[in-house]
Write a structure and sequence with these properties.
single chain, 10 strands
Length: 297
């Protein structure tokens, strides 16, 4: 598994990470999670991303792999309650990280990220100071920001975060010009979320889940010529597109299926897309994307 340095953190992370939100939201069985993570770690995974608000994701990770703490880099997020209501006070953030450490059965995380807070909250400074305090206390090694659009621009320009987590995919390309160059100039490590755009090519009709409907709508309009009924082939092109963004260090993909992470690892074995393939996707986006096709949180 190829590895890349996550910016100023110096962490040498697998280009394919694991996004643990799905194991919480989908109610994954603990035995399946144990098999999934054991297999993924065996095949080169070393970057795992979760959040305190992802239902019981952290607890499941803690039960499964806390005894292998030196085998992976562990990222979590704070700033949201379980219903995604903002929780940005110093007290709420401190309580969140303390709960995360308990859930994950560890005394530190490698990266603590503010979860999609807006630029007005950032400007107040209290949330950032709470993360800095957690770092000073040894509860996290590094601090980061997770978000998109103008809020992410504000976070980058503060020059206080070590990493940026943002949406990067064939269906979400605003960040390629808006955020990635700025983050790279600051030597921020970039974590790509939703790199397969929730694999909306699986749905022949508009899905019921509102969370993925915007990507499904975009796919209908983009009508990429490689979306041809083979979901793995589309997933390969999508993952390799995100991998082709030089600023991206790792892509976090979620699953509840024990066999899926190694399969995804195989899909990116060819590495980045060739220049012509990459240009074709970027040109199609430039021709079709509306001004309202902003980064999806």
């Amino acid at each position: 598994m190829e590895k890349r340095i996550l910016g100023k953190t110096g962490m040498n992370v697998s280009v394919l990470g694991f996004g643990a939100g799905e194991i919480g939201y989908e109610g994954a069985d603990q035995a399946d999670i144990d098999r999934l993570l054991a297999s993924a770690l065996e095949h080169g995974l070393n970057a795992i991303d979760t959040a305190e608000c992802y239902v019981d994701s952290e607890e499941k990770l803690g039960r499964s792999i806390s005894n292998r703490r030196n085998d992976y880099f562990l990222f979590t997020k704070c700033g949201h309650k379980g219903n995604f209501e903002g929780a940005w006070s110093a007290e709420e953030i401190e309580a969140s990280i303390n709960k995360s450490l308990k859930n994950l059965k560890t005394d530190y995380v490698d990266l603590l990220q503010l979860h999609s807070c807006n630029k007005d909250v950032l400007a107040k400074g209290e949330a950032v100071e709470a993360l800095q305090k957690a770092r000073k206390e040894g509860k996290t090694r590094f601090i980061g920001y997770s978000g998109d659009g103008a809020d992410a621009v504000a976070a980058i320009e503060m020059d206080v975060f070590d990493t940026l987590q943002t949406s990067v995919s064939i269906l979400d390309q605003e960040c390629i010009e808006l955020l990635l160059p700025k983050a790279k100039a600051k030597n921020m490590g970039v974590i790509a979320k939703r790199p397969i755009g929730n694999a909306v090519w699986r749905f022949k009709k508009k899905p019921d889940n509102e969370y993925v409907q915007e990507y499904w709508r975009r796919l209908q309009e983009l009508a990429y010529d490689f979306v041809n009924g083979d979901p793995d082939a589309v997933s390969e092109r999508a993952l390799r597109f995100t991998l082709s963004q030089a600023a991206v260090a790792t892509m976090i993909v979620g699953t509840t299926k024990p066999e899926r992470w190694p399969q995804n690892a195989e899909l990116i074995a060819k590495g980045a897309l060739g220049p012509d393939e990459l240009k074709a996707i970027r040109d199609r986006w430039a021709a079709i994307a509306g001004k309202d096709w902003v980064g999806q949180v």
